[in-house]
Design a protein that fits this description.
Length: 523
């Protein structure tokens, strides 16, 4: 009975993850288009380095407050109210929570506008005075994006509770589309007007955030939500959201501290280092979206409901199946990026102001980032279970462990490896975090079927390694090509490797390796 429940839960997660995967894939691809535009127009140098830091400041707070702690806490409490208190009480909670959160975030935005010069100096002390002034200007333009992201995260949490996954996930694609179109239009206008053109991309970020909020409004109205905002710090539900948020914020602050550390040291690594690392991480965001974000979003509502009903046998099965689903995309993605990073970077970015040397340096960073993909996948499945079990302090401690190891690796290798030390430290830190979480989760949720997991993971690893052979053998020939021939050859090799991998998974197993694609095959 428990196993059947677990299978059913795994099916729900796979269905939700499929919806999110399609939407997030679209978003990531549009994000790559956005980075292509930035690379072509600005390359990897003065303006782009300033933009990376300026965008990173509100983005750090967004990841910390909006898409991290706020989203997870809101979904947990909202799911509980929906299960036990009824829909009317749930919507009242949403109105009070949204108004209270919005008031707090607007205060943070105002503070950020005032402190922008200090924040840029703190984050990138290696900048020249000219680059510092430009980064400060861009930071002030983009800070209101934090308010848009916070509202969008609350809206997404409401819709996820109703098993609506595609629309909230695709809202990020809308953000990328609007921001890049606005940025390109303003670029040409600003060049003619004698205004620093990178400022157009900053304006596009804010307008993209507004579009991300707006696209979710009709779906919420359709499900009965009315925008009568309240302000209540004393409401039990609102207080529960903030109570859950606090340890999550502390835990996620470690992740943001890691980003801060990386940016701090990268600012001393010479012109272009920040840009290379940013471009590399943007490419890695595509597979991260395919399994990480998708499964994290889909697991939390299912796990929260199972814990609320006391279905712990189903929870065990849910966790093992979700881990295997995550690894079924994480491991082949890691192998693919390790063996074929340079042709991928060359195809996506090498045009305009982006030089072959920029391609090589970005590919080196990407290869090192890719080492952490399987570990990152694990954390995206484990962390929601800790939140569902009301144990948010464990992810918090694991995050600080990750930061500490990251910092130690960077300090030990920065002189010898330069900017590559930052990518290596990030990956080793994430691996340590994943191991720590799995260790503690297995002690809380006992009797997990690790034998099944290890058998499935070994088959996925074997299929991934065999998949990497064609990529490794064909890499040199592909790098000799240019233009359409390069595009055709790169995409052809990726398709060939993908076909080899999924054929092997279909032959060897595990069944979770194909879960995310079953509905597409049926359709």
């Amino acid at each position: 009975m428990g196993n059947m429940a677990g299978e059913s839960a795994a099916g729900k997660i796979a269905k939700g993850a499929r919806s999110v995967t399609i939407a997030v894939l679209l978003s990531r691809l549009l994000g790559l288009v956005r980075e292509q535009v930035l690379a072509g127009l600005f390359g990897a140098g003065f303006q782009m380095d300033a933009y990376v830091v300026a965008y990173r400041i509100p983005n750090l707070l967004r990841d910390l407050l909006a898409e991290g702690a706020l989203a997870s806490a809101f979904v947990t409490v909202f799911s509980h109210y929906k299960e036990r208190e009824g829909l009317a009480a749930t919507w009242r909670l949403a109105q009070k929570a949204l108004g209270t959160i919005l008031a707090l975030v607007l205060g943070i935005v105002l503070l950020g506008e005032l402190l922008a010069p200090f924040l840029v100096k703190l984050l990138a002390p290696g900048f020249s005075p000219e680059k510092w002034r430009l980064a400060t200007h861009l930071t002030r333009i983009m800070f209101p994006f934090l308010a848009c992201a916070s509202i969008s995260a609350v809206f997404a949490g409401m819709l996820n509770t109703f098993r609506v996954f595609f629309l909230p996930a695709v809202s990020s694609a809308v953000f990328n589309l609007v921001s890049v179109c606005t940025g390109v239009l303003l670029y040409f206008w600003f060049v003619k007007a004698g205004i620093t053109p990178i400022a157009g991309m900053a304006v596009g970020v804010v307008l993209g955030g507004l579009a991300q909020v707006g696209i979710q409004v009709p779906a919420l109205k359709k499900r009965g939500f009315s925008f009568r905002l309240g302000l209540s710090f004393k409401d039990p539900g609102v207080r529960e959201i903030f109570r859950l948020m606090f340890p999550m914020v502390v835990g996620l602050s470690a992740v943001q501290l890691s980003v801060f550390v990386n940016t701090y040291f990268a600012s001393f690594c010479g012109e272009g280092a920040l840009s290379w690392l940013s471009y590399a991480f943007r490419i890695m965001y595509v597979p991260l979206g395919l399994f990480g974000v998708a499964l994290s979003v889909a697991v939390l509502p299912v796990a929260s409901s199972q814990v609320a009903r006391g279905e712990f046998e189903a929870l065990r099965r849910t966790y093992i199946s979700s881990l295997l689903m995550a690894l079924s995309l994480a491991l082949p993605s890691a192998v693919g990026l390790l063996t074929f990073s340079e042709p991928i970077v060359k195809l996506i970015f090498e045009r305009g102001r982006f030089t072959p040397q920029d391609t090589l340096n970005t590919a080196l960073a990407l290869s090192l980032f890719a080492l952490a993909l399987p570990a990152y996948a694990s954390t995206k499945v484990s962390t929601p279970l800790f939140y569902a079990l009301k144990r948010p302090k464990i992810p918090m401690v694991s995050s600080f462990l990750s930061v500490t190891i990251n910092l130690l690796v960077v300090l030990a290798t920065l002189k010898s490896l330069g900017f590559r030390a930052i990518a290596l430290g990030t990956s080793i830190g994430i691996c340590a975090q994943a191991f720590f979480q799995v260790l503690f989760l297995s002690s809380i949720v006992r009797k997990l079927n690790w034998r099944e997991f290890l058998a499935g993971a070994a088959r996925i690893l074997l299929a991934s390694l065999l998949m990497g052979v064609p990529a490794y053998l064909l890499k040199a020939r592909v790098l000799e090509l240019e233009g359409l021939k390069l595009a055709a050859a790169t995409l052809g090799v990726i398709a060939l490797c993908g076909g080899v991998y999924f054929a092997l998974v279909a032959l060897l197993g595990p069944r979770e390796g194909l879960y995310l694609f079953r509905s597409l095959r049926k359709r």
